[in-house]
Batch of 4 targets.
Target 1
Amino acid sequence: MEVLKQCCLVLNNLNTINLWNTGLSADVVELLAQLLPQCPSVRSIVLDGNPNKDQFWHKLIATDSPVHNLSLRFNGITDAGACKIGENLAECQLVSLDLTGNQVGDLGVKNIAKSLRVNRTLGVLCLASNQVRDVGVKHLAEVLAEFPLDHGEVVQRRRLLSHNRTTPLLNTSSHGLRPESRDGHHSVKSSTSVMAKKGDKLSKKKDDRQSIKTPGLKKEEQKGSMTSDLNQSPKGNRKPTKDRPPSLREVQNEDNTDLAHALLDNIRSVSDQLWLTGNRSLASINLSRNQITEVGVAALLAAVECQMAAPSRSGNAGLLRLCLQVTGTS
């Protein structure tokens, strides 16, 4: 592991780490998780065929982890390990998660589905060859379609809305932009006028000297010299520089990026409850070779129909690929 650490620190363009069937222990997995924040170029981790009892796999997708694609096939992951993964999945930047060939059941899928209520980065989820039943599938279908917000999510949504309303004003004051400050407006105006007066005095002295040396100088030329000096004062037109503070409109545009949060998506009120548009970022789900009956399939079908009827404000198309292969067909 020490050799891998030295290599990762030197290889700035390292993109993938593949440790398939190497007998990784829980301690090595934890060390690898601590190493990942120091390797920002790493995007894919493949740790297939490394079962261990401690199941520290969730540490690989911490908030400071750069990993986008994580493959944990045939690692003996149970519901306990899947629940831990689900807890970290809510705030990570993972794009693809492969849990094929493990022992994940309905409880593990329920926790993963819970994180998908707010996660909008995961696009591919593979749960093939596990122990998923209709109960777990229903939890996934609920997240894909439309669901009511619980109390904690309602409180968090209010905080986000309040933050988006107050942040532009706070940012403008921090950048030195005070559109509503009387003192700031008069101070800028007064300082400009003082500097302009100084420029006038300097230009008059300069004109007097020039008139002494060249007594035949015309008044129009003297006037032209005075205006050229005034144009060089701070009151004149100045070209924008790279280090200038952002404008109010630019700050507001930056704050509008927070609107991409899942809890700020399309909301409708039904019987004193807030219903949120389901997850539209998850484009591919593989549930092949599980214990799913017609009940689970019907729930998934209803979720897809709901996505088609109620598009998301984010513009994502929703589920594009659903694999339920059982006997060689999908």
Target 2
Amino acid sequence: MCSQNLGLEQLEEEGLLSVYKIQPLLGDILDLKTSETLSKSVEWLALHQPKLPVLKQLPLRAFVDHGLMLFFTTSLYDDVRDRKQAGLPDQNPEDIVGLYNSVICHLCQVATSPHLASISWPVAEFSIKNHESIDGAHLDWNSDSQMLRLKSRISSLQLPDPPDFLDDWYNACSVCLQYVKTITTDYSRTKAPLINRVKRILERRQREFENTCYLSFDQSGCVPTVAHIPWIKIVETCISYKLAMLQDAMQYQEELDGDPRLFLVYYLESDLSTYKPPNSWKLATKQTADDRRFHPEKIVKSFYESANKKRDESNEQTDGADMLTLIKVISKPIAIVKETSETVEDFKHQLTKEKEEMKRLDKLLSACSEPGEDPLAHFTPTFQLKLPQESKVTQPLEYIGCTIEDKLQELRESIQRDRRANQLAELKLQSLLDD
């Protein structure tokens, strides 16, 4: 009769109740038998409570970091490795952002899965103060309000779709900074640091490009192409900004509500492992494989193109002899990638040699300015003195019409060239140390 009044049989048929037991009690709760019956009933409930679900538990930030490492960072840097080995530029920003947003969307679905809402755990009857169960879980961990809270926080990590970029370095940099500003709309006080950081990334890439062109082609003022925009670093900077903002928002909310368990994520490992990358990323990695086979060394070719373009702009009215120089630059077998990827140890060794040579030349220059014996009489320069083709003479230097002033001038020019090379080497060393 009691089971019918409580609807226990119907609940059992619907699978909402696994097992039940009706235990009659006497009216006097102070009676010894009643106390003993209550104790046995509680023991029976503890023995027949549902089994603990196979749930993983992580703080929200750790959950996001774990998911990004599994599905975003690993896939991205596998592609970066393949592209670097083939001399290809960074992947398209649309594909990078698309992969990242896809991972964030998947993590949001895992943390707020409908499967979690159907789990009746922990047992509310065995909860202790502050709605915390003896298993350590909060009773509201899968409530509607908690699911909405997690969904809102995780979804806020998504990045907007990047705009289209024109084939011009300066216009592309301007559009890139405008894109970064859209990420900081809701956080105006933190807008300036993010924008300045992206500016420094772009300026460093431009300096590296100019230095490489100067060292390889003796051509200054070269302008990079859109392919040289470091999208990997820019997107990573934006992601770091989003994660920092998430951490600040969680800390503020936890202090406001006084609940440290407010942003704990419970999830099923089986749900997390179902992630599949978007089709756009699959096509992007396939394009990387095709470019490695049919269009390698795109970055190297862009250096040639930029150097020749700059040379064309400065020599629009050149004659045939100047054009021969241009062709020579195009066919110059310089391994750009090797030069730009030398190890820090190689640069340190080269820098030490350059400094020693500069000290020697400085001492020699000081000696030349003092009266007495000519110090250049026994000097062997590190540069070659090129004479005109028609004057093939083997006489000593003093018999070909070179005065001490001429030799001093060439010495000064050699010192200037060595100093310029030394400065460029220090810049490259500093950029490698910063990375």
Target 3
Amino acid sequence: KAWLDINDNDYDKVKTELEAYADWVAKVQHKADPNDIDVRIEPKFTIPDGEPYTGGWCRPQTDGPALRAMAMSKWGMLLKSTGNGDPNSVWEIVKFDMAWVTENWRQDGCDLWEEVRSNDFFFNRMAYIYSLNVAADFGDMLGQDTGAYRTVAEEIKGETQGHWRDGFLYESTNRPYDGAVIHSIATFGEYLFPPSSNEAAATIQVLAKAFCQEYPINQKEISAGKPGLLIGRYPGDSYAGGNPWQLLTAVLGELFYLGGQATYKDIERRGDFSLRYADYKDWISLLRLEETATAVDLAAAQVAAGDAVMTSLWGHVQDAGGRIDEQIDKHTGAQASAEGLTWSYANILHSLHARAAVQTLRESLRTQAV
């Protein structure tokens, strides 16, 4: 998904990587599983043979089938719309993974960080809802019957509404405060709790306070008058020191940009307008907007907040020659843990792509106003 997005779904730019990924998925989907689980919910495979990893790990990883099917659906839709490749063969890949989702989405599994277990992770539920709808869109293009996908997506959506509780969106009952929620809203929020929602703003506010208190580097930079904030996995994290994560900080920046984009799209439709407090109360509180603020003020503040987060992140990675690691030491601000983490690169590039999109929209509105 990230690779398709940052390349604007340009077939020629993504063809090599997506063809290889489709071949990989088709191979690993049907491997014999040595760990006594469905191979589709294995967390890891060895490279290049694609055999399921047999070492100790948190199993099963139940978000896997939906995420693979979603990525393959987007690839299949690109093939269909450009008249390239064989989208029907991609549909077979999607259909096989989605069969697991529709039948087993309530199954117990491991969280995004592969540490705790639940059958009700917010990240997984949001991924299911989004992926089922994307797969349905792909199937519709091919004339397939996809009604079951949308029905299950609505069922999950109804049950996931309950994750809004006590003024924020929680990840799971055994780990309520989690940066995975920020990732979920930014990546999967098209159908529930979108980035522009009051729930998104309220959750940012709760988690920002928690991570500000958690990391001395945040307190130090705030005291020095530096804008922005670094966030991590969850309060009390102890893995590799329990630090801020680059990939989560980047997705927080993206969430602000997506909120700004939604506001600018409202302005494009309606023109500038005064903010009705009941409709925007959590954004008004989070960004400390004046009572007289308008939509233009809100959009500008959302983008500025994203810039503050990304500027803070940049300050801790700029001297590494482009290398982005997994974590930032919570005391010193130096990069730490796994070096050159692919997920970190992907989220930073995706956030910057979102910023470019909102900037283009903002400039278009300014040109129209002249």
Target 4
Amino acid sequence: VLWRRGEEKAKYEWLHNSWSQVNVSADELKETLSRLLSANEVLSGEATIEHLVDEHASSIFVRIANKMIEISEILRDNITKDELIPAASLVVTVGVILAGGYLMSYLVKLEEENVQKTLGAKGLKVDRKGKVVPELKIHELRAETYNGMIRLLKPGCRTIVLIVDRESKDKLVAKFYKHAWPFRRNKTLMFGFMYIEKGLSWYKKILNLTLPEPRDIKINPKNCIGTVLSLNGHRRYFCMYHAKHPEATRRPGYYTSSGAFMGFDSENDSSDAEDIERAKPAVAPVLDSPDHLPIFEDQLLDGLQNWMDRLFEGSTYRYHVNYWPEFPISPSTWNTK
């Protein structure tokens, strides 16, 4: 007698007599069943049933195929052509919508890549929110770009130029880029750099134009490295930054007359005081530190950020020129890095 108690458990009990045609076996079976049907009686034995595998059962692929055939037969017997056509059109419509959505997303992705490439060529990029973020470009000041960067500037626009040489260009321009990055959204500013080997004669000319009387200025090109010029092409003036210039450090007690710095004269023109755009100009003295400590290349632009803040406040000294001199044309054999 077996009693299944679960998938893997079973209760059982053996009959004492073997089954035969006599009434003894039948009577014993009836007595045992009557006893087990009472609430207090249970089967004496217990066994664990192992997992049984039907070796003659069909494989899963055969069962799937048979199920599909069965479904097709049911549909063929119960569904007419008038009912099949709307269902098929619905399935096709859903498929076309899904395919169209995928195609549209793919085309939008291609369009975004093209827009980013186009904006990247113009110095712009798009952030995650879809807003256009301008990238900062540092242009080289040379004869070909001189008119666009200085002479033909619109009113209110300025060009900030860093003076470098071929050896210091990579290091100084990278640091100059970091200082100029906060002003990348300002449409009135243009940033650039100039090789002193190319523009030394032009640099001498604009310095000479700021003097009351022209004279020969002897300039060591190495001392010009790290100088930053803010040039206003329309108003014809420029401001200057250098690590040893007093506007860059502002240390008290180390000031001399402005004529000691790169040939500048300390006398102010009376007409400059009437310049409405300038805010209370002060005499531009020069820093003459008594310790004469050298300034290393990586320290040349340490004070540039503070100087730029004063530049936009209008408190830096302005050197006016009557005209912008021609920029020298570099020989074709001059190679830049």
